[in-house]
Amino acid sequence: MEGIYRSELQLMTAVPSSTNQSWHKDNRARGLSIIVPLVDFTPSNGGTQLLLGSHTTKWPLSEGGARVVQASAGSIVAYDSRTIHRGLGNETNVGRPALIFCYDRVESPPPG
Known about the structure:
Blueprint: E1 4-14, E2 32-37, E3 48-51, E4 66-68, E5 77-80, E6 85-87, E7 96-105
């Protein structure tokens, strides 16, 4: 599709004893973020936490709408790049790797 490109491809691992990430968005403009868990995502091993509906609302939001993604290895988790989210800390003694793909529009590249 013209004007859309893969802006990021990462291998991200929540290492054992890591802490929660800060809440953030991948982009302020509409885009697509995709996570492919390489091991099962659970609340204890650093799964991603999403604030549902936050892609259409303004900050600050209540964490009451937050949901932890629980997904099997190899599944696909897709969400709007404007969705507020964070990786949770890994309370286990094994790493939690995942592939992250982000697709954005040429006119609105991600920050950074």
